[in-house]
Amino acid sequence: MTKFLIRLTxxxxxxxxxxxLYAAGRIYSFAQQDETRPADVAIVLGxxxxxxxxxxxxxxRINHAIALFQDGVVDAIIFTGGYGRNDxxxxxxxxxxxxxxxxxxxxxxxxxxxxTNTQQNLSEAQHLMQTLGLQSALIVSDxxxxxxxxxxxxxxxxxxxxxxxxxxxxxxxxxxxxxxxRETAYYSGYLLGY
Length: 194
Fold this sequence. Notes:
- The protein is of the alpha/beta class.
- It has six helices and seven strands; from the N terminus they run αβββαβαβαβαβα.
- Helix content is 52%, strand content 13%.
- The strands form two sheets. It has a five-stranded parallel sheet with strand order 5-4-1-6-7, with helices on both faces. A two-stranded antiparallel ribbon has the order 2-3.
């Protein structure tokens, strides 16, 4: 019986490892895709704000959305994300302030400050799009985040396209590997319904 349990455990571990390698490969491959095209709005997925300023990760997402707006690819931007611990402003308010300082018009910038994860970012943004009469969106985030974000957008029935940042702060091999491992775990949890 003990040999059977050991063998079963090994098989189970092999299956889990095979799944993780498969999922990581799909996430990495999807991260290389850029579907940027004209759309009504760019939705910037939340990332940490440091009290009243964007973290480097959030800053690069904001910069990407600013470039999309300035290039005429989108007519508006929705910033997402609520309050973190010790934040003076929500992630979305911090992002809007940054974009205003970059010279973007206030009427083109919209926020939702209730969400605390990717699914909520997209759900809240979708409600805001409906209120504003917007149909199509570019989802802006880091490349390794895009596969899960787009799967969630698809679940919501959004007309959405991936527009990953080209200046992700996750540029070094160790940070890319960490992000890939994290997204593999999150994507696996998403598929399992967690």
